[in-house]
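Morning F.,

Quick status update on the modeling queue. The single chain you submitted on Monday has been processed. Sequence for confirmation:
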Amino acid sequence: MASVPNLRVFNTRTRQLEPFVPADRHVVRIYTCGLTVYSAMHIGHARTYCFWDVFRRYLEYRGWHVLSIINYTDIDDRIMTRAAERFADVRTADSAGAGCLEVAEGVIATFRRDCRALRIKDYAAYTRATDFIDAQIDMVAQLIDAGFAYVVDGEVFYDVQKFERYGQLSGNTIEGQQAGASGRVDEDFERKRHPADFTLWKPSTPEQPSWPTGEAAWPQGRPGWHIECSAMSTVMLGRHFDVHGGAIDNLFPHHENEVAQSEPLCGHPWVGYWMHPEHLDLRGVKMSKSLGNVIGIPDLVAEHRYDEIRWFFASTHYRTKLAFTAELVHACAEGYKKITRAVKILGDRLRDLPPEARAIPVASSYASMREGDAGIPRDRAAMIHGAFAGPSSRLIDRFIGAMDHDLGCPQATAALFDYVNELFAGGIETLDDAPSLMAAYRCLVRHLYVLGVELVDEALYPELAADCMPAADAGDLLAPYRAVIDRMLQLRLDARKAKDFARADLIRDVLKAAGVQVEDTPGGARWELARPTGDEQA
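Structure tokens below.
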């Protein structure tokens, strides 16, 4: 399955599309730069982490096993500032760094909840920088011994002029460097050999968190930002791993400096592929707390359903800036309704049938016994059964082709729209062939799942539902209300049959007031929740 390198990704290091060939033919090892945990995740972060989630899901769809690591930068000047503000009344002379733990862990908990709200799958490990201090100290000491770092007044700087390839990843060469290259730490250019030199280890003042190093020249302090990720990723994934990424703003100086720190010690290219999703574009307005336009995840999912957000993110290629406004998300969601309508119609028609009536009469061979893409997805044979075999086969081929070309999500969503059109044209609303409907249902929800849209009903596709996030209610977003609404529609139908039209209209009006849109069709009434208007939301 995964051994055929049909997938091509854009490698920032080489600035070109390359066949994706991990070091191990079965396993892909990925390290993603996570939050500096002084404040909660916002929509800009959401786009980045949703992309990495889609990348992982597609690798797994293609048959690879993914070992994904994300870090928390839980020691930072901004964390210390927050702690000093929040815990000023409880600080004592010997409480260096008091409150930093509480600030960091509170944001970490919020991050995990926010990821689950967006159906971002759990990572294999979440590493905290402060849990790897010993590895960071060891790496700094090795860089000093190798001549790539120097000590000034207890602070350790990296000497960028000693690393010949500095600047190759980002294109920011040493010759073009000016002040500010070190990133987050305070600058002191008189003590540096070059303005681009950056801090590996910084001495702490008495009120700041501090760790002993055992080194006379730099006896105590805390790590610089860049060394944290080099140490954590190397400990967790080894001296060479497949993919390193974050958002585009991590490219320089952070990732450039990580390469400079890591490659002198490993002696070979440290990372196979560097990948960087682009920013959100708030129509030319920078998102900042001072402007009051930072949108957190609770606010985002209060305004839009998570699946609408994931579909919106998938509508633009990850290396293209994504214009974001609430109106754009709503407009995208209007088109997406056709997808959810198809899922609902198929689910409604299949859900009440006995399992034996909707069973797909297919017995598949193991995916690894099939040649090339015939093994993708694993249960492909059950998806291309029956009346919709042709459209389903075309969807799978188009979806794979789109995603194999540098994760072409916009082309993948277009393929899904065309597939749904073919399903409607083929009669999913009226066809009396449950196995064919079941095959189409599974094909549709399986490919939505790759994009982070988890609309699977456990009763209809338990194998996929088992992989869905626990926060998902078996893909049925309306599960708590379905029985009540269906009962009210039955009462309305009974009233119409009895020619009690006043009662039928009253039930319809009650449902409408509750936000339930009813559509009368030859096959019976169907319903969906209407989007609240601006007045209703207010």
